[in-house]
Amino acid sequence: MTSPAPDALFAGLRVIDVASYIAAPTAAMILGDLGSDVIKIEPVGDGDPYRAIHDTPALPQSGTDHCWITDSRSKRSLTLNLKADEGRAIMLKLVAGCDVFITNQPFPVRGRLRLGYEHLSPLNPRMIFASLTAYGEQGPERDRGAFDGVAYWGRSGLEDLIRSRGSVPAPSAPGQGDHPTGVTLYAAIVTALYRRQLTGQGSHVHTSLLANGFWSNACLGAAALAGADFEEWRSRPADRPGTFTRNVYEASDGRFLQFLMARSDEEHENALRVAGLGKMLDDERFADADSRWDNVLPIIEAMTKAIGRRPATDWIESFEAAGVPCSLVRYTHEMGDDEQAKINDVLIAPQTDDVGVPWIINHPVRVEGIAEAGAIRPPAVGEHTDEILDELGYETEAIDALRRDGVV
């Protein structure tokens, strides 16, 4: 593994990652990319179960641990049995010298292992304790566990919204809410680090999948809180509020086009003309924006038939030439072909040949002039156990004994 330059922004910062799966470990990964020494604590044996998710029916098969590669780079791995007294002693040594402690362990587990903020903060008052939960730090559901598909997607109303009239709610893609939630936790940690710089005091920071789901659905959620009439909204033609440009249209080659960025009356009228539907503008039902709003369904039906007669690339050229923004709905498997994403480091190439994939999806935090670790190989299970224990002062014989006893 390689590491950022010694002058990286967070060089010298130590982060302890006692978390699993996606959201909380992703926050640790971003800190690691920016120079922190991130020590990931994993169970003895197979390690974080997220290592194996790539091999489940929930995801397309690639032959690589692509999820782990994406979310767990820029870390060192220490396997540790936190139920053993010796394992807890090692953990407490790490806590005493860390800057950030990240966990998403359920509160009952934190209580049993004495890994809550109330247990650890007396050991290190300058530590930033970062907590990720499903439903928040307080209330009757604080102990409930949940994945993002439940607490972020389902609970917030997003799952209910992403469907056409008459269809069932749509489940989220794996990690869809976890990744933005991880960025939120990172933001909270960095905010607390700045406060510590000013005051010398540590902090307890936290976020939840519930909070991030509500935040993601804030536009429509705010309407609900303001007493909006959702029954009227849902009953609009084709279940599409607004204009015909809110619809998605299938071309003759099976690809889909969207016109969300076509917003002006001129763009709407030119869209109809390019589609060969200019005569509709002579009909009083479609002559101006208000009438098209009130009679949107016939326009959608006509546009659907028209777009279906030619392939997507032909349509895109025709619409763009007429000044009508038209976008292709990309397939996920086409991500690697997106040159714009590569130019802007949304996709980054591995720095070494041992990563196993040609491109890695980068985290979205970009700061010019800041050194980053980049696309490097994530750690193997317990790869740095001996190294970290040596740094804590354990002799070789003691490390061997810990391993024989199943502590590490």
Separation of termini?
21 Å
The SSE string, one letter per element, is EHEHEHEHHEHHHEHHHEEHHHHEHEEHH
Q: What count of helical segments does DSSP give? A: 18
Output the radius of gyration: 26 Å
Instruction: Report the uncertain regions.
Output: none
Share of residues in helices:
25-40%
The fraction of residues assigned to DSSP E strands is 5-15%
Largest sheet: 6 strands, parallel
Shape: elongated
Question: What topology emerges from the helices and strands here?
Answer:
Blueprint: E1 14-18, H1 23-33, E2 37-42, H2 66-71, E3 76-79, H3 85-96, E4 100-103, H4 107-113, H5 117-120, E5 128-133, H6 148-154, H7 158-161, H8 178-199, E6 203-208, H9 209-216, H10 218-225, H11 230-234, E7 248-250, E8 256-258, H12 265-274, H13 289-294, H14 296-307, H15 312-321, E9 327-328, H16 339-343, E10 347-348, E11 360-361, H17 385-391, H18 396-404
Parallel strand pairs: 1-2, 1-4, 2-3, 4-5, 5-6
Antiparallel strand pairs: 7-8, 8-9, 10-11
Structural summary, described in words:
- The chain is α/β, with parallel strands linked by helices and 408 residues long.
- The chain is built from 18 helices and 11 strands.
- It has helices at residues 23-33, 66-71, 85-96, 107-113, 117-120, 148-154, 158-161, 178-199, 209-216, 218-225, 230-234, 265-274, 289-294, 296-307, 312-321, 339-343, 385-391, 396-404; strands at residues 14-18, 37-42, 76-79, 100-103, 128-133, 203-208, 248-250, 256-258, 327-328, 347-348, 360-361.
- The strands form 3 sheets. A 6-stranded parallel β-sheet has the order 3-2-1-4-5-6.
- Helix 1 packs across helix 8 and helix 6 (148-154) runs parallel beside helix 9.
- The two termini are 21 Å apart.
- The mean pLDDT is 93.
